[in-house]
Design brief:
- By secondary structure, the protein is an all-alpha fold.
- The chain has a domain of 47 residues.
- Helix content is 66%, strand content 0%.
- Helix 11 crosses helix 12.
- The longest helix has 18 residues.
- The radius of gyration is 22 Å and the shape is globular.
Length: 240
């Protein structure tokens, strides 16, 4: 009986060491959570990796924000692909569908909040070192910054969404052009540069039509403002 207390203490110490959850366990739980949830629960899944700084944890955060913005909807993905295909993969093609538009926090209409979320998502995807997700997040960042420059983001989104009653291909093109021209060249240029350098150069996607478009926009320079201006005028000058 006298050995019982020391034995229990010893077993307790072993369990503290061996039974404690590891980072990989929390990441696995978060991944399982994302696999089973929709946009309504995505941000809660992200909380499972709070404080963890591994690439896998950042990929969870990167993915969770896209799920929250309903990017995993097959219809939305199909519409994005169709618009990109129809315009020879121009980064401006699907601006209305790539923009983060879902309400954020307690301020559902704040353009700044949506832009901040897209910026954070791009940072997560960069730290996850996922070339594909970084490319998507860069394009979403460009689209979100551009759409937020308009007085009414919803008008752009509705005009560009084939499933919306307000869909109008010509109106979509005009509003997308207006949006990109109103955006900060430095901000959208920085996103385009990141997409090209980290997702395209030296990767299997380098010769894809999307990467070729980014190569044309960067045109040998690394100055974000110049790249942003090239992006704004890629398909013609900005309206006066």
């Amino acid at each position: 009986m006298k050995l019982q207390t020391p034995l229990i203490l010893a077993l307790s110490l072993v369990c503290v060491t061996a039974c404690k959850k590891k980072d990989v366990d929390y990441v696995a739980e978060a991944q399982d959570c994302l696999d089973k949830t929709d946009s309504s629960g995505a941000l809660e899944c992200m909380q499972k990796v709070e404080g963890i700084e591994t690439e896998s944890a950042y990929l969870i955060r990167c993915s969770a924000n896209f799920i929250y913005q309903e990017f995993m909807d097959p219809v939305r993905l199909s519409n994005i692909a169709e618009q990109m295909k129809a315009s020879n993969s121009s980064p401006l093609a699907a601006i209305g569908l790539l923009a983060f538009s879902k309400p954020v926090g307690n301020n559902p209409t704040a353009a700044t909040a949506r832009t901040n979320l897209s910026t954070a998502t791009m940072d997560y995807c960069t730290k996850a070192k996922s070339k594909g997700m970084l490319l998507l997040s860069s394009m979403a960042q460009i689209a979100t910054v551009a759409s937020s420059a308009l007085p009414d983001t919803e008008e752009l989104i509705n005009a560009c969404d084939p499933n919306s009653p307000g869909y109008d291909a010509n109106d979509c093109k005009d509003k997308a052009k207006e949006a990109i021209c109103e955006a900060s060249p430095a901000v959208i240029g920085e996103a385009a540069l990141a997409a090209y350098q980290q997702s395209c150069l030296g990767s299997s996607q380098q010769n894809s039509s999307v990467c070729e478009q980014f190569a044309a926009i960067t045109n040998g320079t690394t100055d974000p403002t110049t790249i942003g201006t090239n992006l704004q005028t890629q398909d013609g000058p900005c309206p006066p």
